Amino acid sequence: MPVDEQPYHHGNLRQVLLEQAESMLTDVGADGLSLRQLARQAGVSHAAPSRHFRDKQALLDALAESGFLKMTSAMTRAVTEPAAPRRRLAALAEAYVRFALDHRELLSLMYSTKHAPGATEQLLTAGQSAMDLTVSVITDAQAAGEISTGDPSTIALVAFSTFHGIATLAAGQMLDGASVDDVVAAASDLLWAGLTS
Predict the structure, then answer these.
(1) What span, in angstroms and rounded, lies between the C-alpha atoms of 38 and 20?
(2) Residues 6 or more apart from 194 whose CB is under 8 A from it?
(3) What is the rounded distance in angstroms from the CA atom of residue 136 to the CA atom of residue 6?
(4) What share of the chain is helix, strand, coil (3-state, %, to 5)?
(5) Can you list the domains of the chain with their CATH numbers?
(6) Are the beta carbons of 5 and 20 closer than 8 angstroms?
């Protein structure tokens, strides 16, 4: 957004900067993000972002945290409607893969920042939220007698890893022409079959 089009004058500068940074990720990647450039786009002094982000790493940490919260929110909305445990797992998978493909650069930043030395406690907590939701879906299915007993955290990790793998392959155009939706549905069915045997 050029400065002369819609400069920032008031409101939540932190949120404005995060939104601009997220939109820039696709074009410039995390390495290309600049607090000065974000300040120019927001129409504020180059020093203004420092009130919210002490440096670029703080911006990246906040952007990754925001990404995890958005992702978990999308996944939570997806599992709110379906009552059947099997459908909830499928909806969770679909929401995750959709988010991953719609926010490729952001997702890459989210995981690389979360697993970097010195990741903030807030980022780690936000990063765990999607896994906690997956564990909850598995636990509910077990409580309903729909799937076999077993450590829900391990089952959730396997499920999450499966869908992350599909998203990664799809993002890299490595599904050999198969439909992403079909692969996600097949993976959900296979996981469910394994959990009910």
Answers:
(1) 7
(2) none
(3) 43
(4) 75, 0, 25
(5) 1-53 (1.10.10.60), 63-196 (1.10.357.10)
(6) no
Helix (H, G, I), strand (E, B) or coil at 135: helix
Integer Cα distance of 111 and 134 in angstroms: 17
Amino acid at residue number 23 = S
Tokens of 66: 């925001």
CA separation for the pair 106, 129 (Å, rounded): 17
* CA gap 35, 93 in Å, rounded: 35
Query: What DSSP designation does 176 have?
Result: T
Please give the chain's pLDDT, 197 residues, in tens: 443 334 444 568 889 999 999 999 989 999 999 888 888 888 888 888 878 888 899 999 999 999 999 999 999 999 998 889 999 999 999 999 999 999 999 999 999 999 999 999 999 999 999 999 999 999 999 999 999 999 999 999 999 999 999 999 999 999 999 999 999 999 999 999 999 97
Place of tokens 């079909």: 182
Among the residues of 33-151, which ranges form H helices?
35-42, 56-80, 85-102, 104-114, 121-143
